[in-house]
């Protein structure tokens, strides 16, 4: 089957810094792909490139058969790409329902205001914010604002959804709920790229894992192969596991 998303030699520079460095990658329809790497590796920048927030400075991005390398964010959203922001920024004084409906409007998915508000209510319930639909977004905890961000991106009715650390700050029970929710979204046919530092979550849900380091792609393989990849262990996993061990007081 042909790829839903293709990155061909994509780079994004900020001044002299190559935040994304010559990345080539294909995502097939229906996949759940984990995107991992150390802080500053370029994961969020890669999402910003595809979603048009910080367009590529070199290379080509093709989504659903169309070259979107230079397209504007709203046009890319209308084409079927949604993303959550790592640093969530809801409209603070708008309600949960209104924020979600605004997501649908951004992607041109709104038939009428009434319908958009009704759908927003359903999406809010789907992410566990059913009781809070009429609360202003600025009254929500961070974990709930992350859920709101997810509902907003779902209102865009995407074909491809990037989740940028949408589980950060959740407790273990909330993480299990979030995993089930992500699986339900995938079952509805949405292709998902998940940026996540919790390896339990990434390995538990991804069919394939892509690893970035210093902007470059250093691995693209099954979870099992990535966990045993020497380059990935040295660049990322080794440090993470060492840190986890010392935090538990069990490490050398
Ligand atoms: N708008 C920007 N202007 C200048 N530099 C930027 C900008 N956005 C990102 N960078 C830099 O690009 C590099 C990659 O950052 P990015 O946020 O993509 O990393 P990340 O993999 O998402 O990290 P984290 O796991 O901490 O979220 C970093 O060195 C960062 O400082
Ligand atoms: Mg990031």
CATH superfamily assignment? P-loop containing nucleotide triphosphate hydrolases
Mean pLDDT: 93
Q: Assess the beta-strand content as a share of residues.
A: 15-25%
**Sheet with most strands:** 6 strands, mixed
- What's the helix count? 9
The succession of helices and strands, N to C, reads EEEHEEHEHHHEHEHEEHH
CATH architecture: 3-Layer(aba) Sandwich
Shape: globular
**What ligands are attached or bound here?**
adenosine-5'-triphosphate, magnesium ion
Number of strands: 10
Q: pLDDT under 50 segments (min length 5)?
A: none
SS-based class: alpha/beta
The CA-CA distance between the termini, in Å, is 48 Å
What is the spatial order of strands in the main beta sheet? 6-7-8-3-9-10
Radius of gyration, in Å, reads: 18 Å
CATH fold description: Rossmann fold
Instruction: Assign the CATH class.
Output: Alpha Beta
Please bin the fraction of helical residues.
25-40%
Please indicate the count of domains. 1
SSE blueprint and pairings:
Blueprint: E1 5-14, E2 17-27, E3 32-36, H1 43-50, E4 58-63, E5 66-67, H2 73-79, E6 81-83, H3 96-106, H4 113-126, H5 142-154, E7 160-164, H6 172-187, E8 191-195, H7 199-205, E9 208-213, E10 216-221, H8 223-227, H9 230-248
Parallel strand pairs: 3-8, 3-9, 6-7, 7-8
Antiparallel strand pairs: 1-2, 1-4, 4-5, 9-10
